[in-house]
Design brief:
It holds the Pfam family Sigma70_r2. By secondary structure, the chain is mainly alpha-helical. About 13% of the residues have low confidence.
Length: 179
């Protein structure tokens, strides 16, 4: 009995260590604030740890954890709508190294993009972050958000349209931050 529990604990620990940067990035993009992102990841991992036997045996544990995170974020958002919509500063957040093909990560002024993301309505923000920043398929995003693929397409399209309408943001991304 003790050996199985220890093995589950080790499996959970390996999962957390391997996924921590990506979970933090997703949480930060959803919340717009480092401390809120840390709280969201911590809350998510607490919930997942309790059910790790079921989560660890799922076909895609990372998708399961992402869904728990989005649900936790949605619950928190419903309670504090005004606080969530206020633009946040990303100073102090450990920046990830840009992927060579990730145009957003290559932008010099990520603050403008993060501020613009913070101004999107929650469902649009979730769809944009999961679809374009996390590079998930529409089906994966729909599963994570608990909605239809059509809702994902609609929310993502509306979110992208709002981002494109922000003066200077489109040029920042397409020019790689050069003015």
């Amino acid at each position: 009995m003790g050996d199985r529990k220890q093995a589950r604990d080790e499996e959970f620990q390996h999962f957390v260590v391997g996924r921590w940067p990506r979970l933090m990035r997703t949480a930060f993009l959803l919340t717009g604030e480092q401390h809120a992102a840390e709280d969201l990841v911590q809350t998510t991992l607490e919930q997942v740890f309790v059910a790790w036997r079921r989560v660890g045996s799922a076909d895609d544990p990372e998708a399961y954890v992402r869904r728990v995170m989005i649900n936790a974020h949605s619950r928190r958002h419903r309670r504090r709508l005004k606080e969530f919509l206020a633009p946040k500063d990303d100073s102090g957040f450990t920046r990830e190294l840009p992927d060579s093909g990730d145009r957003m990560a290559q932008a010099d002024d990520r603050g403008a993009l993060l501020k613009a993301l913070a101004e999107l309505p929650p469902r649009q923000r979730e769809a944009v972050v999961l679809r374009y920043w996390e590079d998930l398929s529409e089906t994966q995003v729909a599963d994570a958000m608990g909605c239809s693929v059509g809702s994902v397409k609609s929310n993502a399209a509306k979110g992208i349209a709002k981002l494109r309408a922000i003066p200077g943001l489109a040029e920042l991304v397409t020019n790689g931050g050069r003015k």
